[in-house]
Amino acid sequence: MRRSVLVGAVCLVLAVVFWLDLDASVDPAGIYPVVVLITLAVLGVAIVALALLDKLPDEGNGDTLRWRALGGSVAVLLGWAATVGLVGFATSSVAAFLAITWIIRRGKLTVKRVILDIGVAVVLVVAIALLFLNVFAVPLPVSTLFGI
Question: How many CB atoms are closer than 10 A to CB 92?
């Protein structure tokens, strides 16, 4: 419980610190940071509340962290950041999503799971791209190789 309360408190503190640093004249194109900070604050409150009400799963003793999966995921995220300008947001994001999914998955990788993973990755990446482009008015990186 202590760890969850600490994580929730850190989320809240970060949200408050960055909220206080926001420019008072946020134009519609700059609504994204506001949405992120509100979401972070809500998640922080939810984590603290659920931890105090003892509604979160048992944290265990820390042995459940798989260091190889964590290291692999960090490497994939660094690779995504390095290639997003080269191959574009959509291609690099789908590839990174699939790589991380397959790294952290427990159990056997089957054809059915691969097909499902690809479908979920494409739907999520398209949804995120539409959200950023149409709601937040944030341009996404375009591929310098493919032009898309």
Answer: 21
Residue 93 corresponds to which tokens in the numbers above? 């994001």
Report the residue count for the chain. 148
Calpha distance 113→106 (Å, rounded)? 12
**Per-residue confidence of the chain (148 residues) as pLDDT tens digits?**
677 888 889 999 998 988 887 765 556 556 777 888 899 999 999 999 988 888 776 655 555 557 788 888 999 999 999 999 899 999 999 999 999 999 988 788 899 999 999 999 999 999 999 988 888 788 888 888 876 6
Q: Amino acid identity, residue 65?
A: L
- Cβ neighbour number for residue 123 with a 10 Å cutoff: 10
The burial of 122, by beta-carbon neighbours within 10 Å (0-12 exposed, 13-18 middle, 19 or more buried), is given as middle
List the structure tokens of 30: 């700059």
> Whole-prediction pTM value?
0.65
* Tokens representing residue 13 in the block: 């503190």
